[in-house]
Every structure is written in structure tokens, then in C-alpha cells.
Recover the amino acids of this structure.
């Protein structure tokens, strides 16, 4: 599909700085009141995931994938759930194991490569609700995970999968890791890495013989964390091996359902192949929208009464699929 040249997103005139756009909504954006029903889903590998449902009796379901160190009650998830409930869709926001605010039973945590977990959640949801159509949305890590799943598992997707709309998807993990090593990037990285190291410390209490905490003090970058923990605990050969396998960019050509990817050009987390214009131009299914502004999962929307732009855009795209 052709690249969408003109995005409908336009920030307020005096709020165009990418870092302001990224940080401000986390503190200022309204958190919608969503009444979840929580399910503890036992995974096929003997662990569990917390699934948060918001049902309105629909035969269409939106599965929401949060960002790294996020959870189902982040403002960007709640806004999307409310928006789709309002148009009559059921919603399911799942919480990653370890890399959300919830721990897990096994010595595992959800990574950018965890398409098996998204597949478990998807098939469980279809069976539980007898849904006619399934769509996905995701932010940042969750956006990459959606795209990786749709591409890598294209030939094995459930027939009910209709498409997806993702935002600020970090689809080139090596490039994003390098961005996080710049002076400004290190400020963002410090925030995430402190939470990731806390997760490892918690797991050490249950697996003291399998986790070496002496590495914690050495971690200054995502490359460090992946070297000392992601690689040995999750079975990769090296950080580069993990980044290669888990970067959705390498699987975009295989996506076979309509998929919208919105990556702002000023997103401070994205670099390298995160703006795949050539692949989108050649694809029958990938719609690439690159607004000039938006920050990372920010998209500050003018007017207190105006709907948050990503929810409007996702509804516009996904509702058209069914």
C-alpha cells in the first residue's frame, strides 16, 4: 500500500518538542474509568498471565498490547479500551510477565520476541468468547510484538484475525538500543532499566542459583541488560541475536492482513529501520503513517474535549476492516 503522506495528526502549536510530547501525557492525560474483569490465564508452559477484560457483548474483540514496563491501566491502554467499548467492541488488555508490573511463576519474562504468548492469548480469547473478528493494537514494544506476530506467524494465524493498528512501534531493536545510548536517550533508558533490574532482583529471590546479581551494577544500557539477562535467561546467542530475531522489521514483508503502523518522525525512541517506507510501498497490507510530530506514545491532542488522536485513528482503521 502507498505510504500515507498526509497524517491527520497535528499537535498544539506550542507543544511540538518531542520530549515534551513524550513525557507530558504520562502525568497529565486523563485516565478513563474502565471496569475490568480480571482473569488469571494459565499458560501452556506452566506459568500465568493476567488478562483484563472489558466486555460489552460483542462478537468483535480488540487485543491490546502495552509498552515495556507498562500494564493494562496505563492511560494509553485505558483510552483505547474506552474508545472501542464505545463503538461496541469487547477489549482484552493483557499484562506481560515480568516486564509489566506483575511477576511470573517461571524464570521467564515477556520480551519483544514473545509471539508465542500473544498467540496463546489470542487463541484463548477466541475460544472463550467465540469471537467472529479479532484485531490488535499495541504501543512501542507492544507494537513491535503485534507486527512480529502478524508477520512471523502469517501462515498460522487464526482465521478470525482481521488486522491491527500500532503506534510508535520499535521495529528495529538494535537502532533503538543505540538511540538509548545517546545523552538524552540514557535518561529514558535509566527509567526503564531501573524497573527491569528490579524485576531481576525479585526473580533472584526464587531462583538464587540461576541469576547472578553481581551484573546489576554493570548495567547502563539496554545492551548491557540483554547481555547479562535477556540472552542467558531467554535462550539467545547474543544481544545482536535477540535484536535480529525480535525486530519486526525483518518480517514486515510477510504480513498478510491489513495493518496500520503509525511512527512519528520525531519519536525519540525510534531510529534506523523504524520508518520502512520501501517495504510499505511494496506491501499489499502494510499502511505506514509517519506524522511529523507526536513524540513517543504522546500524541498530545488539542482541546480537553477532543478524543485522543490514536484512539480515533485506530477506530477509523480497524472498524473499516469488519
Amino acid at each position: 500500500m502507498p505510504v500515507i503522506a498526509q497524517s491527520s495528526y497535528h499537535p498544539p502549536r506550542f507543544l511540538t518538542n518531542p520530549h515534551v510530547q513524550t513525557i507530558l501525557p504520562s502525568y497529565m492525560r486523563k485516565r478513563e474509568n474502565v471496569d475490568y474483569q480480571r482473569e488469571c490465564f494459565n499458560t501452556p508452559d506452566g506459568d500465568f498471565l493476567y488478562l483484563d477484560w472489558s466486555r460489552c457483548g460483542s462478537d468483535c474483540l480488540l487485543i491490546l498490547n502495552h509498552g515495556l514496563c507498562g500494564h493494562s491501566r496505563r492511560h494509553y491502554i485505558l483510552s483505547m479500551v474506552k474508545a472501542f467499548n464505545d463503538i461496541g467492541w469487547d477489549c482484552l488488555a493483557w499484562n506481560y510477565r515480568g516486564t509489566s508490573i506483575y511477576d511470573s511463576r517461571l524464570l521467564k519474562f515477556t520480551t519483544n520476541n514473545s509471539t508465542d504468548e500473544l498467540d496463546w492469548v489470542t487463541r484463548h480469547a477466541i475460544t472463550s468468547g467465540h469471537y467472529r473478528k479479532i484485531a490488535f493494537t499495541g504501543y512501542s514494544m507492544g507494537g513491535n510484538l503485534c507486527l512480529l506476530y502478524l508477520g512471523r506467524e502469517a501462515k498460522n494465524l487464526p482465521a478470525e484475525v482481521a488486522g491491527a493498528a500500532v503506534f510508535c512501534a520499535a521495529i528495529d531493536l538494535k537502532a533503538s538500543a543505540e538511540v538509548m545510548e545517546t545523552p538524552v536517550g540514557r535518561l529514558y533508558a535509566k527509567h526503564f532499566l531501573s524497573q527491569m533490574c528490579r524485576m531481576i532482583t525479585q526473580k533472584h529471590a526464587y531462583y538464587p542459583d540461576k541469576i547472578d546479581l553481581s551484573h546489576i551494577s554493570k548495567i547502563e544500557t539496554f545492551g548491557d541488560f540483554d547481555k547479562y539477562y535477556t540472552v542467558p535467561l531467554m535462550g539467545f546467542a547474543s544481544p545482536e541475536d535477540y535484536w535480529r530475531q525480535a525486530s519486526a522489521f525483518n518480517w514486515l514483508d510477510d504480513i498478510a492482513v491489513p495493518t496500520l503502523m503509525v511512527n512519528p518522525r520525531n519519536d525519540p525512541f525510534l531510529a534506523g529501520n523504524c520508518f520502512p517506507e520501501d517495504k510499505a510501498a511494496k506491501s499489499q497490507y502494510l499502511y505506514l503513517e509517519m506524522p511529523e510530530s507526536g513524540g513517543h506514545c504522546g500524541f498530545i491532542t488539542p482541546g480537553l474535549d477532543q478524543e485522543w488522536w490514536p484512539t480515533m485513528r485506530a477506530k477509523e482503521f480497524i472498524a473499516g476492516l469488519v
Notes: Residues 1 and 284 are 5 Å apart (CA to CA).
